[in-house]
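Technical note accompanying the year-one report. For the benefit of new consortium partners, we illustrate the data format agreed upon in the data management plan: each record pairs a sequence with a structure-token string. No post-processing was applied to the example shown here.
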Amino acid sequence: MSFSDLAAKRSARLKQQQHQQQQRDKMDDVTDDIASDKKPTDDNPINPINRPISILNDDIQVEQTSTKGRGVFARRDIKRGTTVLSTKATMIALEHSYLDKHCSYTAIPGGTHGKPPLARCSLCKKTHYISKHAQRLDWPVHKRECECLRAAKTTPEDSIRLMARLVWMRDCKRADGDTDWEKQLDGLHETYDLLSEEDKVGLGERVRQFALYFTKGEVSRLQNSDVDVSIPYAMRLLNKIQTNAFALQNSDAVGVAIAPLAALVNHDMHPNCTSQFTRADDTLSVVLFKDVKKGQEITTSYVDQTLPWDMQRDALWKQYRFDIGECPKDNNEGSGNVDKDTLLNTVNAAEKFYFDDPLRAFQRLQPYYDTVESAYAPASRVRVRYLRVCFAIMITIAQLDNMPTWAPRLTVELGRKTVGALKLILPYGHPIRALTLAEVAKQMLADSGEERNMMELAVVDKLEKCVLALDESRMETQIGYGKDSALEGYLVEEIEEIRKEIQMRRLATVAV
């Protein structure tokens, strides 16, 4: 294999991974974490009046507090990188473009990394399964879903199908005499009574879409006894899904999921864990990225921690209906000589359309670069927000067939600046740090043709720097994602591939 073939193979891997990252980013309407009982918590040790409810495992237990509802607390001192809870999702629904790529029961991708190809449902011809066993296990729910999918003119969005699957599973459990399953569903936190009338109207429109799908177009049946789903019930159930849904995410954001056990983890502005799907299936993991002491509450962030305070505040109120208050004076938000609202509005606007027109999006943001770098503090979340969006845009530009010659170098430069900023505001091992480090390494690996004009030792030097960057990401991934995550597996494979390429290039150099 020639050196150009090696570089082409590396570029092909990169392009596929970047496409997967784009699909993840497009799922930004689904929250990455799950709501619980209700209010943000302090990162303090347990209050002595807390009442233990249940022990989940050797590491954690659920306790009832006097002020915050239920919460999850450490039963012993626990080191960062520990997975304190691993739980299967109660129900999943795949985004429609992934119905033929992932198992509808387990979320396992088919035909990749040694996995068998998926088998398609012969009736609806939409859902696919990793095995006959998975298909049989899903059949009690899918036999009714199958009819609705066949009757639907278009496939409904994943949250609507998730709601229908939950109702069908509820009916199956009732028929089996299982009351615990429905109690878990009923116990999910909801914010319906706090919604404005405008919000309820919007919720009602989505319930109408659910009713059309669920009743195969016969909406009047929703009130009939054979369906047992009233409009008020549907409104509250959909609100619970909106408040508690996780992005079902492994290599891609492939759908949505409900996991009631993880709903017990409360929000905090200074969290110590993340709740996410770290494997290539429907297993949700709660992983510590900070050490915790015995009696300390396990908390997560329901929103992106790197966002400016006001954006976090707005998102938390809109989605979960609690208010974190004004930005603390020592929060280091920073203020430049450009109006902060103007800057953030421009960034937000560019983020919305950059998939369709990345060059125009970058042109909107580029004029602010010097001002942001000179006027905002290095740890300002306004600066971090600006850099992260610029980096994401440049990754997209670097994939264009007519990519500008300046794109690869600028992409790496922005990536390094973004990582540097993230290291100032996030602890070592935080998943956002680990993932961004991996992305920068991938951009460093990209071959835009410049390697043809480089000395062989210079190419080797470039690849060795890429290995160092990938390995740095791998070490942080072991903390933020826990051991043996899908991301760690990818990083280990990529490091091995690059080291093989380095060895081949060194041998060729010696031979010459």
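Partners are asked to follow this layout when depositing records. Residues 314-421 form one domain.
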